[in-house]
Amino acid sequence: MTAQTPHRYQEPGWFTRNVFNKLVAGLTDLGISVLGSRVLAVRGRKSGEWRTTPVNLLTIDGQRYLVSPRGHSQWVRNLRVSREGELRLGRRAEPFTAQEVSDDDKPAILRAYLTRWKAETGVFFGGVGPDAPDADLRRISPDHPVFKISSPA
After folding, report:
1. Of 49, 53, 92, 140, which one's alpha carbon is 20 to 30 angstroms from that of 131?
2. What pTM, to 2 d.p., does this model score?
3. Are 148 and 65 in contact (CB under 8 A)?
4. Which fold has domain 14-150?
């Protein structure tokens, strides 16, 4: 991302914020994963308080990733600062460390994410789908932060 590029973020609408996210988070809190959903918990970069949001956990060849389909969200900004968090499913809270993935390394990850969740999140990718050429995936990659997550050492 260059200094001139604004941080893109698509704010969720009322239905997503007040119904869909709460439903998915509620089910995940009960230990029911919806297509790989987890509740992401990250400390706020200013407050230090835990902030939570439902996310889709993507696994490729045993490596796990968090992709922000909406762009540079608050959880992304918090994770960039803290570099650690928790993935929650029911009563289980799994701590992790995070490393942001470079734009050049995102196309295969974005393709896998869109293959799995295009019906749910495809609208946020500007018409680019899982069958798009790598050049299109590279073009949109600055708008979609990706984090490789690992168990803490």
Report:
1. 53
2. 0.87
3. yes
4. Pnp Oxidase; Chain A (2.30.110)
Residue 136: Cβ-neighbour burial (10 angstroms; 0-12, 13-18, 19+) = middle
Amino acid letter at 37?
S
Answer yes or no: are the C-beta atoms of 103 and 142 closer than 8 Å: yes
The rounded distance, in Å, linking the Cα atoms of 103 and 1 is 8
**Per-residue pLDDT band at 2 (split at 50, 70, 90):** very low
Residue 45: both structure tokens together: 């970069």
Chain Cα centroid distance, residue 58: 9
Would you list the domain boundaries of the chain?
Answer: 14-150
Helix/strand number for the chain, H first, E second: 5, 6
In DSSP terms, 93 is beta-bridged to 88
User: How many Cβ atoms are within 10 Å of 58's Cβ, its own excluded?
Assistant: 20
CB atoms within 10 A of CB 102: 9
Cα–Cα distance for residue pair 43/64, rounded to 1 Å = 20
